[in-house]
Structures are given as C-alpha cells and as structure tokens.
Design goal:
With about 100 residues, the chain is mostly helical. It is built from 5 helices and 2 strands; from the N terminus they run ααβααβα. The longest helix is centred in the N-terminal third of the chain and has 11 residues, at about 10-20.
Length: about 100
C-alpha cells in the first residue's frame, strides 16, 4: 500500500502525512495533531490538514479518519465534503 504513495504527485511532507494516515485502522480516528506528532512535526497540524486536503485518493488514503483535536470533524476534500466524511465514519462504526 505504501508503494501507492510513492507514485502519487505530492511533496515529501504530503507523502509522509498520507503514509501515516494509511496506518489508521478502520473505525478509529486520529487528530491532525496526532498525525503531525507521528511524522515528527508536532506543530505542523495545519500543514497536515492542508496535505490531507491535497489527498489525491480519498477513501483509499483514509483522510476521513482524521479529525480535529476537539472532536469535530474538520474538513474533507473528497466528493460530498463533510456529508461524505460523516457517512464514511458512520459506516465504519465511529459515529
């Protein structure tokens, strides 16, 4: 699955974020800050959100599993926006 990332167009930072996002199990979530910490950039949570906004493969790279630290959904750049994010999380048993 990680090979998929190498073939995608994005910065080295984007790819780190996308690889870390692939590690989130179905039915679980992580915050943008959790991802930033995991990739060694603890203050870059806004940059993490921006990288996920550039995710060329929503659902495959499960950016819908990344939420804000305060528990709100944050954003979703995939088709259907937050409605789709909510639906995906619900189908995975999170909401």
């Amino acid at each position: 699955m990680y090979d998929l990332i190498e073939d995608l167009k994005g910065t080295a930072f984007d790819k780190k974020v996308w690889k870390e996002t692939l590690k989130i199990p179905k039915g679980k979530t992580r915050s943008y800050k959790d991802i930033a910490i995991a990739i060694g950039h603890p203050k870059a949570y806004r940059a993490v959100a921006n990288a996920l906004g550039r995710n060329p493969r929503p659902v495959v790279i499960p950016c819908h599993r990344v939420i804000s630290s305060n528990g709100t959904l944050g954003g979703y750049s995939g088709k259907g926006g937050l409605h789709t994010k909510r639906k995906l999380l619900k189908s995975e048993g999170f909401i």
